[in-house]
Amino acid sequence: MTTRTARGRGRSARYAARRAARSRSLGLLARAGFAARGALYVIIGCIAIGIAFGHSDHQADSTGAMRLVAATPAGQVALWLLVAGFIGLALWRLSEAAYGATGPGGQEAGTRLAALAKAVIYGFLTFSILKYALGVGAPASSNQQSADLTAAALHHPGGRVVVVAAGIGLIAGGAYIAYQAWRKRFLQQLNLAGASVTARRVVTRLGQAGGIARGVVFAAAGVFLAVAGVKARPGQAKGIDATLRAFAATPLGPWLLVVVAAGLVTFGLFSCCEARWHKMS
After folding, report:
1. CA 277 to chain centre
2. In whole angstroms, what is the distance from residue 245 CA to residue 257 CA?
3. Per-residue DSSP letter, 72
4. pLDDT tens track for 184-205
5. 131-to-66, 73, 135 alpha-carbon distances in Å
6. DSSP 8-state symbol, 278
7. Which of 3, 119, 148, 194: disulfide with 93, CB 3.0–4.6 Å?
8. Which residue has the higher pLDDT, 142 or 271?
9. How far apart are the first and last CA of the chain?
10. Coil, strand or helix at 102
11. Among 258, 181, 273, 274, which Cα is nearest to 219's?
12. Residue 208: exposed, middle, or buried by beta-carbon count in 10 A (0-12, 13-18, 19+)?
């Protein structure tokens, strides 16, 4: 009897935890997080477009976006809104890692591990913005962070292999993101049943173009990381800012950077659409 009672209590506790993970308040926080992510991508894309035309001296990454936001009249309030949004997104991804995501394959181990990885990334981003909002100091640029992490890895035995493998993984991840976007797989995570035909069409196009651009940037950053590992030169590892600037150095000139940057703005707009239509339960 005691064992059965304990099992019943255990099931009740797990059920309560799942209900908390699927609560309306957490869903609202996650939606705020999608909006915060969208705002960050829009700002980064706009900075990159400015760089292409020589009209911006900001870094086209999260650090540059934070500095730009902080410089506005409502900068401090905006920074705290970003903190709140990314906290919500990190907690929601943690709930997916623990209890599974909605949609096809949401209970698979790979999906849960991906959710956990996203939660960690959003957690670090939240910490960076929080430090900046508190006045502790701005984080290093994505370029410096990439070079420092690569240098630290290369100092260890087998570090070159690890760096190259990480670069290849980033290339594969970027290609997967772009492929998923092209195939419109993101629609499985959206609830567009009540949306108009025009809204559905716009959201689909934003998701495709934005996801492909995002995947291209990640894959390009992976190429630079793999090269840095092969040559054992940490300085060749590039963050988002340096990766975007590299597009302007191609034979197509700044216009390729404009296209990719516009794609990041598009992804930001799509992320704001996710804040409205993403399935939360």
Report:
1. 18
2. 7
3. S
4. 999 999 999 888 999 999 999 9
5. 11, 19, 6
6. B
7. 119
8. 271
9. 35
10. coil
11. 181
12. buried
Distance CA 257, CA 36 (A): 23
- Amino acid of residue 251: P
Q: How many residues does the chain have?
A: 281
Percent over 90 (pLDDT), the chain:
56
Query: Are the C-beta atoms of 72 and 78 separated by less than 8 Å?
Result: yes
One-letter amino acid identity for 118?
Answer: K
108 CA to centre of own chain:
21
**Does residue 161 come out as left (phi exceeding 0), alpha (psi in the -120 to 50 range) or beta?**
alpha
Cα–Cα distance, 238 to 136 (Å, whole number):
25
pTM: 0.87
Each residue of 78-101: pLDDT tens digit? 999 999 999 999 999 998 888 877
Q: Which amino acid belongs to residue 12?
A: S
Residues 6+ apart with CB under 8 A from 120: none
Query: Among candidates 101, 84, 69, which has minimal Cα distance to 31?
Result: 84
265 has which bridge partners?
none
- CA dist 190 and 200 (Å) reads 10
